[in-house]
Amino acid sequence: MPEVEDTASSSGAGELPEISSEITLFGKYEMGKLLGCGAFAKVYHARNVDTGQSVAIKAVSKKKVFKGGFMAQVKREIAIMRRLRHPNIVKLIEVLATKTKIYFVMEFAKGGELFTRISRGRFSEDLSRRYFQQLISAVRFCHSRGVYHRDLKPENLLLDENWNLKITDFGLSAVTDQIQPDGLLHTLCGTPAYVAPEILAKKGYDGAKIDLWSCGIVLYVLHAGYLPFNETNLMAMYRRIYKGEFRFPKWTSPDLRRFISRFLDTNPDTRITVDEIINDPWFKKGYKEIKFQAEDFELKGDGSQSTTGTDCLNAFDIISFSTGFDLSGLFNEPDFSVRREQFVSEEKPERIISRIEEEFRRIEKVKARKRKERGVYLEGQDSNFILTVNVHQLTENLVVVEIRRREINSGPTNDIWGEKLRPKLVDIIYDPVTVNASE
Predict the structure, then answer these.
(1) Protein kinase domain location, by residue (predicted)?
(2) Which residues are catalytic?
C-alpha cells in the first residue's frame, strides 16, 4: 500500500482531500473510512498495521490552521489532550505531521457519539445517572488540572465498545493561564443551546461554572430526550436561557428535578459545585469512585505541567519528551529553524541556567534576557539566535534540561549551539558511562 507523502497537497487551495482507504500513514496506520469533518479537520477510522488496534485519526490542514488563525487553538488542544489521562476522556496516542497536515492519533470510540444514541429515544433515569456519573468524573478531573472544556454536549461525548462515556474535542478548551486579572475568562464560545447565561452577559465567566451548566443541559437531554432551551429563533432561545425559563417533562422524579435545577441556576455564584454534585443523594446512588493512576498536576498555559509543590516529572512527562509529543516540529515557522534538545544533569537548576547565560554572553551580545524560576530566554544582539532553557526535576538528584533554539540562516557551518555552546557545558551534562567507570 502507498504511504502518505510528506509533500504539499495537490488538491485545491486550502482543501483537505479525502484520504484513500488504501493509504498507510507513515507505514504505521492503515487509513479507513471518513468518520466526520469540521472547518479545518477530518476524522478517519484507521488500524495500527503492527498491532491491529483501531484508532481515530484527526487530519488537520496546516494551511487552514494558519490562514484561519487557529494555530494557538490546535497547539492548545494537543497540549491538553496529551496530558489528560482518565478512563472517560479520549486518549491522545501520538501526534504526527507532514509538510501540509497534522495528524492526531487517538483512541477509537467504537460506540460513536452519545448524540446518535439519545436521538433514538430518551434514557431511563438509571441509565442517565450512569452516564452522568462518568461525565462528572471526567469533568472533575479536568477542572482539578486547570482545564475547562467549554463545549460539553452529546456530540462531544463518545461511547467505547463497552458503552462507557468518553469526552472528546478539546478544541475550545481553556486553561488557567487564560484567566484575566479579574479571575474570569472572557472568550465567547460554546454551542447556543448549551451556553451558560453569564456568557451571554459578556461580563466574564468562571470556566468551571459554565462547564457545570452544560453538564446540567446534557443530563436534561439524556433524561428528557430533548433540550430544555430550544427555539427556532436564536434570540428567543437566548432570552429563555438568560431568564432560566424551562419546564421538566412529567416523568421527572422530584429528586432529579431538584438536582437539575441546581445546574441550571442562572446565578453562577449559587450554582451547584463539583463537591456538592459528588455528595448529592441522586448522584451518589450506585456511584463508584473511579480509581486510576495519575499524578496531581496543574496544567499551565503553554501546555506544560508542574507538580504541586515541586517541579518534578512523572513517567508520562518523561515519555512526552519523545518526538511523538514534540510540538515544535508540527508547525511551520517562517524565517526560523526551530530545534529542540534535552540533556540530563546532576547540577542544580540555578547553576545550569547561570552557566548557559555565562557561555552565551561569551559568544553573543545579549539583546534580551527574561529569567524565570527554572528557565531563561536569551536573544542575541542581532536577533539571529534565540535560546530558551527550561529545567525540570527528574529525580531527587537529576534534572532534565530542555533547550529550544531558533537560528536564522543556520546551517552546517553556523551551528552556534552545537559547535560553540554545548561543548562548553560538557562538565554539567550527566554521563552515566563516566559515572559508572569512576565507581
Answers:
(1) 29-283
(2) 151
